[in-house]
């Protein structure tokens, strides 16, 4: 065990204070970030596993902080969620992704859906499905060119969730479950919820080659999704061996550095023109 000197407690307190100060700073800066347009979206292509064609893009939030440079989502989204400002940020993401997708379409590029990540807080806003419909209307984007990604942690109140999901799918918007396999109750709700697509979490995909358990899990998720008439996309695909395994097990789509990292919108436009 570690020697506990008289100053240990003091050190711990200072570290703790530093961490909470940092959270406060980020929280403060996030408000300004929206007003000063410090956010932008990058997009990561999703590929058909068998033809290699781009079949969608995921919008991923980027924050260019004026003093600190790029801050990754993992460092500010949890804080934005706790403080509630994620609702406004998420609304911006939704609008920007729809606007951008319509702009690509108007430029005559390949038409594909854009996937947008949702936080629970956004989803629980009153009349959320109608507010999404209003955004689509405003930018003139057909509902089938938008997909919303939800996570399993959002599936707490099953009745309320089903109701909101049904309203969204009635509009024609696609729904996918993000990070599939990492949350709770993965299987029970799948039968009841109107879900188009499962995204197999990166943690399973990255270990396909070395961990027989993970390989089994991935194969089982693909088979199950197909039995439930859902599409499956593998996240975090980085190697040719992973691609080979996923193809063998008839995974539908893939996303990951093997295909392309997330890139700025201009780069996507080039890819969709090719
Ligand atoms: P996610 O939704 O699971 O997004 C995929 C993350 O994996 C992205 O990280 C992406 O850059 C990364 N990634 C993609 N391919 C690979 C790969 O082959 N290998 C590895 N190691 N990583 C890969 P990013 O952009 O840092 O986003 C992290 C998380 O932040 C996202 O995870 C998502 O949960 C959240 N996030 C990002 N944008 C938004 C947003 O607009 N709204 C909300 N609520 N959350 C967002
Ligand atoms: Ca996602
Ligand atoms: Ca994910
Ligand atoms: Ca493992």
From TrEMBL:
Residue ranges annotated for the EAL domain, each copy included: 23-274
Domain of life: Bacteria
The protein's name: Diguanylate cyclase (GGDEF)-like protein
Species annotation: Paenibacillus cellulosilyticus
Portion held of the full protein: 360 to 633 of 633
């Amino acid at each position: 065990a570690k020697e506990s000197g008289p100053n240990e407690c003091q050190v711990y307190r200072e570290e703790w204070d530093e961490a909470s100060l940092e959270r406060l700073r980020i929280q403060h800066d996030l408000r300004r970030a929206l007003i000063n347009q410090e956010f932008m979206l990058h997009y990561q292509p999703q590929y058909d596993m068998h033809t290699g064609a781009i079949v969608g893009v995921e919008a991923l939030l980027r924050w260019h902080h004026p003093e600190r440079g790029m801050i990754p989502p993992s460092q500010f989204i949890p804080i934005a969620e706790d403080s509630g400002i994620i609702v406004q940020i998420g609304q911006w993401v939704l609008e920007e992704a729809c606007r951008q997708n319509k702009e690509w379409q108007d430029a005559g590029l390949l038409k594909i859906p854009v996937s947008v990540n949702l936080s629970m807080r956004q989803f629980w806003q009153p009349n959320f499905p109608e507010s999404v419909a209003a955004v689509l209307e405003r930018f003139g984007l057909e509902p089938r060119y938008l997909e919303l990604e939800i996570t399993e942690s959002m599936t707490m109140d099953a009745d309320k969730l089903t109701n909101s999901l049904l309203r969204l799918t009635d509009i024609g918007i696609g729904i996918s479950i993000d990070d599939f396999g990492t949350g709770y109750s993965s299987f029970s709700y799948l039968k009841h919820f109107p879900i188009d697509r499962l995204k197999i979490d990166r943690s399973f995909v990255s270990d396909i080659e070395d961990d027989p358990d993970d390989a089994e899990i991935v194969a089982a998720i693909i088979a199950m999704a197909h039995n439930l008439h859902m599409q499956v996309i593998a996240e975090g695909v980085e190697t040719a061996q992973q691609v080979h395994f996923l193809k063998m097990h008839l995974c539908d789509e893939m996303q990951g550095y093997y295909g392309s990292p997330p890139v700025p919108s201009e780069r996507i436009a080039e890819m969709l023109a090719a």
